[in-house]
């Protein structure tokens, strides 16, 4: 199932010029393929000249803006496609599958990601007198929307700071604050408001997610998790699925399989050892669930990925 919005939004002339400037800046600061950390700690730039294969990972709270190209992000079977003049926002840690779907040497995929500091967002809400959101369902913690002119302008000014590193310590926090404000007052602001308010249901789910990420290899008792975040078991199930589009057990399984894949790939762990380290008691169950998520049993999948790593044109997106 795909997000209903069109892949790209047709910008007006000023907006188009701003996107061209953003693409030019990202291209200048990314002369090689891949992810490029910057002197602004929360800001990373991304470049790819080829579409990629699906890549499994966890999105932490983040704003992603594509200046050129397009990407598909899938959460629990729901796909979100976005390209130029669009942005994606994740308000909590989410296990997703992402794939660059539009890129070429002549027109590379150019994107930036900015980590979202939930604590600073909450402080901004307090300082500006922004009302706390009413208790209501706001949907999954992942969404795609059109990039407004004020948000594009703030993002452009943040990236331009890379040309004047001496200005970054003073000006970057101010521009990041402006970006947070634009997000809070935009169409997707309700998601951030819910997650930034202490003791809100969304904040409780964020704490449940943090517990799962820290303890994913341990046996999961839902009653214990509910107690740890001060929720009833039924409320935890309901709100966890509303935010993450999966149950706590499904979320834990995603984390376990992703970590097992990393262990097999980077530490050359044997399949049974990796399964045990991430909490599986049955290697056969591990292999079944691994194959279901990644489309191949562990060793075949690892061989395929190592082959892609040796081929610059075949790396995951």
TrEMBL record:
HTH araC/xylS-type domain mapped to chain residues: 206-304
Keywords of the record, alphabetical order, are:
DNA-binding, Transcription, Transcription regulation
**InterPro entries found in the cross-reference section:** Homeodomain-like_sf (IPR009057), HTH_AraC (IPR018060), HTH_AraC-typ_CS (IPR018062), Tscrpt_reg_HTH_AraC_N (IPR009594)
Q: Which Gene3D superfamilies match?
A: Homeodomain-like (1.10.10.60)
Which domain of life, per UniProt? Bacteria
The record, for PANTHER family, names: ARAC-FAMILY TRANSCRIPTIONAL REGULATOR (PTHR43436), TRANSCRIPTIONAL REGULATORY PROTEIN (PTHR43436:SF1)
Name of the protein this chain belongs to: AraC family transcriptional regulator
User: What is the organism of origin for this protein?
Assistant: Pigmentiphaga soli
């Amino acid at each position: 199932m795909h997000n209903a919005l069109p892949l790209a939004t047709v910008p007006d002339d000023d907006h188009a010029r701003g996107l061209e400037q953003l693409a030019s800046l990202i291209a200048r600061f990314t002369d090689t393929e891949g992810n490029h950390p910057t002197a602004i700690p929360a800001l990373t730039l991304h470049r790819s000249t080829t579409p990629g294969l699906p890549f499994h990972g966890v999105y932490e709270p983040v704003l992603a803006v594509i200046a050129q190209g397009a990407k598909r992000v899938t959460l629990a079977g729901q796909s979100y496609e976005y390209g130029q003049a669009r942005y994606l926002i994740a308000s909590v840690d989410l296990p997703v599958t992402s794939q660059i779907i539009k890129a070429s040497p002549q027109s590379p995929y150019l994107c930036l990601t900015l980590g979202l500091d939930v604590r600073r967002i909450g402080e901004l809400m307090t300082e500006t007198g922004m009302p706390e959101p009413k208790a209501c369902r706001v949907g999954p913690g992942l969404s795609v929307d059109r990039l407004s002119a004020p948000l594009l302008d703030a993002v452009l000014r943040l990236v331009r700071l890379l040309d004047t590193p001496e200005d970054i310590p003073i000006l970057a926090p101010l521009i990041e604050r402006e970006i947070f404000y634009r997000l809070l007052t935009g169409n997707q602001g309700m998601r951030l408001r819910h997650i930034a308010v202490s003791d809100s249901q969304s904040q409780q789910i964020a704490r449940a997610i943090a517990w799962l990420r820290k303890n994913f290899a341990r046996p999961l008792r839902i009653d214990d998790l509910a107690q740890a975040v001060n929720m009833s078991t039924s409320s935890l199930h309901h709100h966890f699925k509303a935010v993450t589009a999966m149950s706590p057990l499904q979320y834990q399984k995603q984390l376990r399989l992703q970590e097992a894949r990393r262990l097999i790939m980077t530490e050359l762990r044997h399949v049974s050892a990796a399964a045990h380290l991430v909490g599986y008691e049955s290697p056969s169950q591990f292999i079944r669930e691994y194959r279901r998520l990644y489309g191949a049993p562990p060793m075949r999948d690892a061989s395929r990925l190592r082959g892609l790593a040796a081929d610059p044109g075949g790396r995951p997106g």
